[in-house]
Amino acid sequence: MERPHNFSAGPCILPLEVFEKASQSVIDLDGSGLSILEISHRSSAFVEVMEKARSLALEHLNLQNKGYKALFMQGGASMQFLTTAYNLLEKKAGYLDTGTWASNAIKEAKNFGEIEIVASSKESNYNFIPKNYSIPQGLDYMHCTSNNTIYGTQMKSFPDSDETPLICDMSSDIFSRDLDFSRFGLIYAGAQKNMGPAGATLVVVKEDILGKVSRTIPSMMDYKLFIKKESMFNTPPVFSVYVSMLTLEWLSRNGGVSAQEKKNRAKSELIYSEIDRNSLFEGFTGKEDRSMMNATFTLNDESLASRFDELWKSANINGLHGHRSVGGYRASMYNALPLESVEVLVDVMKHFEKTL
Ligand code: PMP
């Protein structure tokens, strides 16, 4: 059976060769006769996997030897909403409110200190990224969400402040484009988009921003402890870390983040040009804020939905329905999605126009 064109928003497509290697390793890890799932996380084989995954993450972000550590933690990005505040919020932090995930982060952080919402696009159902705000003085940190998965907006520029550490939820666009990652004090991302299976959460933190809060931090949330224990304070999510390592190796073999960015740009230009050309469809977000990862669009005439749905489903396309808070359609085009899948979708949109 041919694999479907998988536009799922996450968990989502990963490279087929990663699935193949991962499935082999469930039976026999590198000829050891043992499954990746049955060896000790303290065994040298797994310690090597963890070290490789952590060092590749830093390498792909160009953050080696710059005072950063990469950690794998658990609880998803949602746990990082509070873990960041636990570790970094003493008095007051600033947040950009750019969507559901950002507002969830705000809600959790409010348990630990004063939160100033520096800018928000909530009034227009988060269909753009706020701009022209200034960062207040005296914040412990400033938090933003680089890609808003539900709405399909992506930050193209970031808050700029020398004295305020910038914290970023990059769950849905990590490793998809080149940025100056050294501008960030801390980056976190759930694995289940561009990296691996759900279960592991990548945290990349600049060590010198830690150790400044007065509260006691529970062990499972303590970045300093996780650094000291090299992400092995307790049993890590071994399979998720292993598959993340395989995906990061795949990324290296394919030219790294900058080569991937070119591919992602080509995919997103193709879909957005069709959304703009085809009078049956309308893009959901402001053009300048469009995401390369998640393209959101609606039908101008909702009554055509069942006919369009039938067409894309019969073209072996999966996961195109929009999130319930936006409606319409969302084409998620993560790193492993080939350009051909976007070509198939665009052909379906063109064909649909002709059938009317
Ligand atoms: N932040 C963003 C940008 C997301 O897209 C998601 C999930 N889709 C989350 C946070 C929540 O992640 P998790 O399910 O890993 O807690």
Automatic annotation (TrEMBL):
Its cofactor is pyridoxal 5'-phosphate. Binds 1 pyridoxal phosphate per subunit. GO terms for biological process: L-serine biosynthetic process; pyridoxine biosynthetic process. One of its GO terms (cellular component) is cytoplasm. SUPFAM superfamilies: PLP-dependent transferases. The keyword Repeat does not apply. It is found in: Cytoplasm. Pathway: Amino-acid biosynthesis; L-serine biosynthesis; L-serine from 3-phospho-D-glycerate: step 2/3; Cofactor biosynthesis; pyridoxine 5'-phosphate biosynthesis; pyridoxine 5'-phosphate from D-erythrose 4-phosphate: step 3/5. PANTHER family: PHOSPHOSERINE AMINOTRANSFERASE (PTHR43247). Catalyzes the reversible conversion of 3-phosphohydroxypyruvate to phosphoserine and of 3-hydroxy-2-oxo-4-phosphonooxybutanoate to phosphohydroxythreonine. Belongs to the class-V pyridoxal-phosphate-dependent aminotransferase family. SerC subfamily. This is Phosphoserine aminotransferase. It comes from Psychroflexus aurantiacus.
